[in-house]
Amino acid sequence: VGGATLSGVAKGAGMIEPNMATMLSYLFTDAALPAPALQEMLRRAVTQSFNRISVDTDTSTSDTVVVLANGHAGPVHAAAFEQALTEAATYLAQEIARDGEGATKLIDLEVREAPSPEAALRIAKSIVNSPLVKTSIYGADPNWGRFVMAVGKVFEHPIPLDRLSIHFGGAAENLTISAASQNADLLRRISEYLKRDEVHIQVRLGSGLHAERVWGCDLTEGYVKENAYYTT
Amino acid sequence: VGGATLSGVAKGAGMIEPNMATMLSYLFTDAALPAPALQEMLRRAVTQSFNRISVDTDTSTSDTVVVLANGHAGPVHAAAFEQALTEAATYLAQEIARDGEGATKLIDLEVREAPSPEAALRIAKSIVNSPLVKTSIYGADPNWGRFVMAVGKVFEHPIPLDRLSIHFGGAAENLTISAASQNADLLRRISEYLKRDEVHIQVRLGSGLHAERVWGCDLTEGYVKENAYYTT
To answer: N or C: which terminus of chain B carries fewer CB neighbours within 10 A?
Structure first.
């Protein structure tokens, strides 16, 4: 970033739905930035990154994100630095979700066309935290009804479900499912897609202009084993 | 109930955190009761029973509870009938939680000494829905820190944790743990207790006079298998 370097490391596995509470993340830079400005940048970057992941809905008592700046590289352009900080934090957050206890897949989920940012985030968290959605992705089961259920159970933000569609993968895959478009061949192709170790899913609500992105992982027997039997 | 009979059946396994949305429950009686009064009794009974259980936090789109009354037994004492209805609904709700997908145990959880009924219920749901609490109970792991975590993650109702204690079993077991009372023998006895197929747990918050009771089940490899591989 303008001659300065930004590095970061992070650790996390379970008890992960951070609200800056066992996740540890350290970021290092040689940029020269006033501490209060850096703190505010970090707060905004964390909101968009670490606070957007969930391994198991459980929130640890000791999540930590720290950024250290020694100033050796001199002053930097604040906006460019903040963008680099947000990108680094997002990368680390995704890696924590990918590395979730027992996880075999990273789930990258975007909820679009929501009536408000709050509705987009609540619904995205509801989907990425749903045990039925997480197990179906683990099993590569194209069970899109579970996504609809996870949207519908957010009673605070009722969404009419007739305009809802779900998109798996990107433009290359072209896998869009809705009540109108369901057919056996499409379901088979979605199942094939879900076998990848990183799945991109976009849920379009057809109810507004707001979007939020979150990251999670599948729920497997491995999660249960790690957490039921780890002590003696 | 005063000469009248009340019978009920219920079905449920997963996608269970009812808010009267795949759970089916039918109650039958020969009591003579006006339909509007019976509807109100049922609504109150459901709030205390079916809406207090969770298998997996996922809320189905089609939970159903119906009570049918043919009047053959004639009029009944309304309060006595409502009590019988609430008891029947609570029994059926507990059986659904016990029969949860992959479940090996019924968890009967009461949160006491909460500052409000809402706080008691939100915290009770947070504990009974926590994957880390559910897997630890499956593994008979006396990991009471996970209970503390599940209390602490309810940010809407902050509870000072220094007065919190957790009670496993009843007076006969006398298994009470808190930060002050933890020791290896107690942990071993709690682990023994958690091997039962029905566990009673009371979390006392030390922050008020309100209590709520909920029912749930443990989280096992069986839940993952049933929901990841059930289709072909």
So the answer is: C
Chain A residues whose C-beta sits inside 8 Å of any chain B C-beta? 14-15, 17, 19, 21, 56-61, 129-132, 135-136, 138-139, 141, 143, 146, 148-150, 152-153, 155, 219-221, 223-225, 227-231
Pairing of strands A6-11, A24-32: antiparallel
Q: How far is CA B205 from the centre of its chain?
A: 18
pLDDT at B108 over 60: yes
- Mean pLDDT over A208-213 rounds to 95
Write down the pTM of the prediction.
0.84
First to last CA, chain A: 49
pLDDT by residue (tens digit) across A123-166?
A: 999 999 999 999 999 999 999 989 999 999 898 999 998 899 99
Residue of A58, A101, A225 to mutate when probing chain B, most B C-beta within 10 A: A58
Nearest Cα neighbor of A177 from A156, A197, A158, A191 is A191
CA within 13 Å, CB half, A199: 31
Q: Assess contact for B113 and B209: CB atoms under 8 A.
A: yes
Tokens of A105: 């897949």
Q: Which residues sit opposite B28 in a β-bridge?
A: B7, B68
Other Cβ atoms within 10 Å of A231 Cβ, number: 12
The verdict on whether B64 is a catalytic residue reads: no
Query: Which tens digit of pLDDT belongs to each residue from B69-93?
Result: 888 888 888 888 888 888 888 888 8
Chain A nearest-CA distance from B57, in A, is 7
pLDDT tens digits, residue range B126-167? 999 999 999 999 999 999 989 999 999 898 999 998 899 999
Rounded CA separation A146/A143 (Å): 6
Tokens of B102: 């992959």
A154 CB neighbours in chain B (<8 A) are none
Of B130, B153, B227, the CB nearest to A132: B227
User: B102: distance to nearest CA of chain A, Å?
Assistant: 11
